[in-house]
Amino acid sequence: MPNAFPDAATLRTVLDLASWAPSAQNAQPWHWLVDSDGLHLDADWDRRLGDTPADRSDVLLSCGAVLHHCAVALAAAGWHPRIRRFPDGGAGRLASFELIESSPVAASVELASAIPRRRSDRREYGESALAPATLELLLIRAARLGVQMSVVPKDRWVRLGEGRIELSYGPVGDDQPPPSGPGDGVLLVLATEADDDRSRLRAGEATSDLLLSATALDLASCPLTEPLRDARARLALACDVFDGEAHPQVLVRVGPAIVGAPELPPGPRRPVAATTTWT
Ligand SMILES: Cc1cc2nc3c(=O)[nH]c(=O)nc-3n(C[C@H](O)[C@H](O)[C@H](O)COP(=O)(O)O)c2cc1C
Questions:
Q1: What GO terms are given for molecular function (predicted)?
Q2: Ligand 1: distance of its center to the CA of 223 in Å?
Q3: Residue ranges of domains in the chain, CATH in brackets
């Protein structure tokens, strides 16, 4: 174990908080290893939902989300995390933490306290618009993680039943779906310069940062990758919003929750004991 390292009880609390990270279809495709070198994150490929590249991408994005949740929880517990991504040069390990004992960081405490409150909210949102300063803040936070963020134009998407989103980049014609309405919120897209595993892990981290920031600002949110499985729509979105210079990885719908809307119950999570090997 490194000289300074959180005790087992603190680590368990941190990993328990991190387990509330969002993941595609709540698959929670990650595994933690605590050994004499510290804390490490691996993907659990057995929990991948299918065999397509999009399913692989969902695993990496979800692992990025839990990595960021864990980093936030560690910082709030007084352990400043330095993350080494792909520390074995791509042989399989996604990340290892180097930890330095320090005072809890206020920004991390705020994000950590948002973790238990965050939900994927697929409902209608309130009608008020997002303040430009809020969008600017989210954009800056994504950029700090090396991820680009932009707003998907209102006439390019529509919210269907159960919070599903359809991107409308088909040929112009009579059968185009109507543009999204005021209660649909804003659709943000996170994109990366490269389209590789490293970028997807980063995009997952940025997704977590965006969702927790939104929750801390009392905004409802929902991450989505299902609409990006349509390769043509994904490419058209990249051209429309990023001039073809970045690869869309995740969509996030954000907006004010409807006043008085009932709280959503938390989804089930695997216990820390099932996702962690202690050696
Ligand atoms: C990478 C990723 C992709 C996701 N894609 C979708 C999606 O396409 N549609 C959707 O409704 N939810 C999507 N979600 C949200 C998950 O379904 C949700 O995180 C999971 O069910 C756990 O629920 P919670 O976020 O409320 O804790 C996605 C989440 C992640 C991290």
A1: oxidoreductase activity
A2: 6
A3: 8-117 (3.40.109.10), 132-256 (3.40.109.10)
Q: Considering only CA atoms, which residue is closest to atom 21 of ligand 1?
A: 26
Name the nearest CA neighbour of 119 among 272, 270, 269: 269
What pLDDT score was predicted for residue 137? Answer: 97
Residue 80 and residue 72: Cα distance in Å, rounded? 9
The answer to whether residues 257 and 190 touch, using CB atoms and an 8 Å cutoff, is no
Tell me the pLDDT tens digit for each residue of 37-83.
Answer: 899 999 999 999 999 999 999 999 999 999 999 999 999 999 999 99
What's the predicted TM-score (pTM) here?
A: 0.96
Please tell me the residue having the least CA distance from ligand 1 atom 3: 24
Rounded Cα distance between 184 and 182, Å, is 5
